[in-house]
Write a structure and sequence with these properties.
By secondary structure, the protein is an alpha/beta fold. Helices cover 46% and strands 22% of the residues. Bound molecules: adenosine-5'-triphosphate and magnesium ion.
C-alpha cells in the first residue's frame, strides 16, 4: 500500500501565517508552539489546499490574513505514481486553484488525489452536533471514492431547491411540484445507496479504532436510517406520497438532505450517554474509520492531520493513539503546545510555530 506524502508546504497570507516553507518528514511531524501562534492554521492551510474547504468552517475572507491581499497555499504531494503540485489562492472575492500549474476542469479532478483526514477539537460535534456534520463526513468520503457522487449531490440539491421554492409559493401547484419527484428519486436514491454502503464499511473500522484508543468498543453501532429508501422507485413513491405533509410544512421532508447517521452505544444515542472523553474518542474513531475506508477504496493511505489531540485525550489515550498511528503508514502532522506530548512520537520531525512562521527544530 502506498501512502500519500506531502513533500513541500508553502503558505503566504493564510490567517496569521507568512513565509512558511517547510519540507516535512515522510512519517510523523510535530508542530510545537504556544496558544495563538498559528499551529491550527498550518493544518487548516494544508487541508484547504487538498479539500478546498476550511475544517473550521471559515469563509474565504476569514482565511485571508489581515492586511494581506490573498491567502496562498502550495503543496507538493507524492502519490503512488507521480508527484503533483496543488495550489490554492483565496481572495476575499474568490478562489483560484491549479493542479500542476493548470486550472482543473472540475474541482473533483483537483481534490480526488489529495486526501487528508483531519481530527480537530470541533469534531466533538460529530457526535453531539447537528446531523449535517455527520452527513458532511459521509459526503466528504464519497465524493472521493464514488464516481459521479459529487454530481449526484449537486443535481439532487438543485432539484430540492426548485421543489422547495414551489412549496413556498402562495398557491403551490401540485403538478409543478410533482415534476421534481423523478429527479429527486433518481439522484436521492443513489445518494442513499452510496451512504448506506459506506456506513457498512465504516462500522467495523470505527469499532476497531474505538477499541484501540478508548479501550472499549462495547456496543458502538453506526447506522444510516434513510427517510426515503435507496430503491429509486420506492424513493420516488415515498416522496410523492408525502406531498400533503410537504405542503403543510412548505418543505420537502424526506430524502438524504434530512437523513442522519445514528451513533448508539448499547442501544442509547451516544450523544446522551458518552462522557466528554468518550465523545472525543468516538469522534476520533470516526476519523480513523474515514482514513481506513479511504485507504481501502483508493488503495492510497491519506495524510493524517491531528490538531491538539492531547487537549482532547488523556495521556494514556494519546500514547495509544500515537502508537496506533505509527502502524498506519500515514504521513502525520500533529500540533501541540506541550513538548512532552511530542516525546510520545519519538521519531517525529519537529517544527516550531511562532508568530505565524514555521521553522524546523534541531
Ligand atoms: N485572517 C486572519 N488574519 C490574521 N490573523 C488571524 C486570522 N485569523 C485568525 N488569526 C490569528 O491567527 C493566530 C493563530 O491562530 P491558530 O488558531 O492557528 O493558533 P494555534 O497555534 O492553533 O493556537 P491554540 O494553541 O490556541 O490552538 C491567532 O492569533 C488568531 O487570532
Ligand atoms: Mg490550535
Amino acid at each position: 500500500m502506498t501512502s500519500l506524502r506531502i513533500t513541500d508546504v508553502h503558505v503566504e497570507g493564510f490567517r496569521n501565517l507568512h513565509g512558511v516553507a517547510i519540507t516535512p518528514a515522510p512519517g510523523a511531524n510535530v508542530l510545537l508552539g504556544s496558544n495563538g501562534e498559528g499551529k491550527t492554521s498550518v493544518l487548516e492551510a494544508i487541508d484547504y489546499a487538498a479539500s478546498l474547504r476550511s475544517f473550521r468552517g471559515a469563509t474565504r475572507s476569514q482565511l485571508v490574513g489581515h492586511g494581506a491581499k490573498a491567502a496562498e497555499v502550495l503543496l507538493r504531494m507524492a502519490g503512488p505514481l507521480v508527484e503533483r503540485t496543488y495550489r490554492a489562492r483565496v481572495t476575499r472575492n474568490g478562489r483560484e486553484i491549479t493542479l500542476d500549474g493548470k486550472r482543473p476542469e472540475r474541482a473533483v479532478e483537483y481534490f480526488s488525489g489529495a486526501a487528508c483526514v483531519v481530527f480537530h477539537p470541533g469534531d466533538l460535534d460529530l457526535v453531539r452536533g447537528a446531523p449535517e456534520l455527520r452527513r458532511r463526513l459521509l459526503d466528504r468520503i464519497l465524493v472521493r471514492t464514488v464516481d459521479g457522487y459529487g454530481e449526484a449531490l449537486k443535481s439532487y440539491a438543485k432539484a430540492l431547491r426548485a421543489r422547495n421554492a414551489l412549496l413556498r409559493e402562495k398557491h403551490p401547484n401540485a403538478k409543478a411540484i410533482q415534476a421534481f419527484d423523478f429527479p429527486l428519486g433518481r439522484h436521492g436514491s443513489a445518494l442513499v445507496r452510496a451512504r448506506m454502503a459506506l456506513v457498512a464499511d465504516l462500522l467495523p473500522a470505527a469499532q476497531r479504532a474505538f477499541d484501540e484508543v478508548a479501550l472499549r468498543a462495547d456496543g458502538i453501532v453506526l447506522k444510516y436510517v434513510p427517510r426515503a429508501p435507496g430503491d429509486q422507485v420506492a424513493f420516488t413513491a415515498a416522496v410523492a406520497e408525502n406531498l400533503p405533509r410537504d405542503l403543510a410544512r412548505r418543505s420537502t421532508l424526506l430524502g438524504p438532505h434530512a437523513d442522519d447517521l445514528s451513533i448508539t452505544w448499547s442501544g442509547i444515542p451516544a450523544k446522551v450517554v458518552a462522557s466528554q472523553g468518550q465523545t472525543r474518542a468516538l469522534a476520533l474513531a470516526l476519523r480513523l474509520a474515514e482514513l481506513h475506508v479511504l485507504e481501502q477504496r483508493t488503495r492510497v493511505v491519506p495524510v493524517l492531520l491531528l490538531d491538539d489531540v492531547s487537549s482532547e485525550l488523556d495521556r494514556e489515550r494519546t500514547a495509544r493513539l500515537f502508537a496506533l498511528v505509527e502502524t498506519l503508514g500515514a504521513q502525520v502532522f500533529a500540533t501541540t503546545t506541550d513538548p512532552a506530548i511530542a516525546d510520545l512520537l519519538p521519531g517525529a520531525a519537529r517544527f516550531r510555530v511562532h508568530a505565524g512562521s514555521v521553522a524546523p527544530m534541531p
